[in-house]
Write a structure and sequence with these properties.
Elements (H helix, E strand, L loop, with lengths): L1 H25 L5 H12 L7 H11 L6 H13 L14 H36 L4 H15 L2 H15 L18 H37 L3 H8 L4 H13 L1 H14 L4 H7 L4 H10 L3 H29 L8
Helix pairs in contact: 1-14, 2-3, 5-6, 5-8, 5-11, 5-14, 6-8, 7-8, 7-12, 8-10, 9-10, 11-14, 12-13, 13-14
């Protein structure tokens, strides 16, 4: 029953997000299709869209003369078929094709870097918080505070300037080598080589916040009665630290980690901009720059739904980590 209630809440939230995504463009004064058409002509040097494209834009963003309820039904039908319309800035490429092309890159970059930053930060946070004031804590805590305070796009720019531009250890931009055949072993190696520097900059800039949060929670947890009981029972330090201390201290970090995974779909916008990485974040930046409303709407909806799914998974798994949150049905 608790799981069903939770699922019902998130389904309602997803419906609200989808409905808001439908209504916001239609609240624009006048005809949204005409606004998009003028913007396209401005950015394309006067090029004209065919009549079919204008009809497609009206079907997606609304025709002021059409019935709103019928538009909503058509909108839901398009979503069910993953039809987000046609990109204005890259006409006539469908928006779904652009998202399908950029999503794997974002999941690889932002997903891998988020998981690595979380694991490194949590492990170091447990070690530093278990013995506060010792050498490890005195070194790691100020370092974590420094990396947290430094903007990660500045770290990315510095890494590009030193490691890519001057030392030539890594490529300057892109996600893969255009000289390698797609799917070949050389192509996979180039993807790895192009991804190391962006991933490293994100991990360097974000692991410190995980470390600080876990360290502070560990310092609080080690004074709890159940930790003292584990020590009094003669259990090993490792078991007390992991089973008694870390398991309870990690709960707030786990919730934040689930939220971070939800935002992974949105990509690391600034990092992808710095490295011209072909992910969702760079795609969104390009769509905003060129006023590509169909693409912007689809990316925003994707990010919202991914965040809701991540929250649902976090709420469902949280009770497994903390029995105190389980409800009695």
């Amino acid at each position: 029953m608790p799981l069903l209630r939770r699922a019902g809440f998130y389904l309602a939230a997803a419906w609200a997000a989808i409905t808001a995504n439908f209504l916001i463009p239609r609240l624009m004064p006048g005809d949204p299709a005409e606004v998009i058409l003028r913007q396209f002509q401005k950015t394309s040097g006067g090029e004209q869209l065919p009549p079919g494209a204008i009809d497609n834009i009206r079907a997606l963003f609304g025709d002021p003369k059409a019935n709103l309820f019928q538009q909503y039904l058509d909108y839901l039908d398009n979503l069910a078929h993953l039809d987000f319309g046609v990109s204005v800035s890259r006409f006539p490429v469908p928006v779904s094709d652009l998202i399908a092309a950029g999503l794997p890159w974002t999941l690889m970059l932002a997903g891998v870097s988020t998981v690595l930053a979380f694991v490194i930060g949590v492990v170091l946070g447990i070690v530093t918080g278990w013995r506060p004031g010792r050498l490890t804590d005195s070194v790691m805590t100020p370092l974590a505070m420094f990396t947290t305070a430094v903007p990660y796009f500045w770290v990315a720019l510095l890494a590009v300037w030193v490691l890519a531009f001057h030392l030539h250890w890594f490529p300057l931009s892109g996600g893969y080598s255009p000289d390698e055949a797609t799917g070949s072993f050389g192509y996979l190696l180039s993807v790895l080589r192009y991804g190391i520097l962006p991933v490293a900059t994100i991990v360097f800039a974000s692991a410190g916040s995980w470390l600080m949060g876990m360290r502070n929670m560990t310092v609080t947890t080690i004074s709890e009665d159940y930790v003292q009981l584990g020590r009094a029972k003669g259990l090993s330090t490792w078991r007390v630290m992991t089973r008694y201390g870390a398991r309870n201290a990690i709960l707030p970090s786990f919730t934040s980690f689930a939220l971070a995974l939800g935002h992974v779909v949105g990509g690391s916008l600034l990092t992808e901009m710095v490295f011209s990485y072909p992910g969702i974040g760079f795609l969104l930046f390009d769509a905003i720059d060129k006023r590509d409303y169909p693409l912007m709407q689809a990316v925003f909806l994707l990010i919202t739904l991914a965040t809701l799914c991540a929250n649902f998974v976090a709420d469902s798994v949280y009770s497994l980590l903390d029995p105190r949150t389980r409800e009695v049905s």
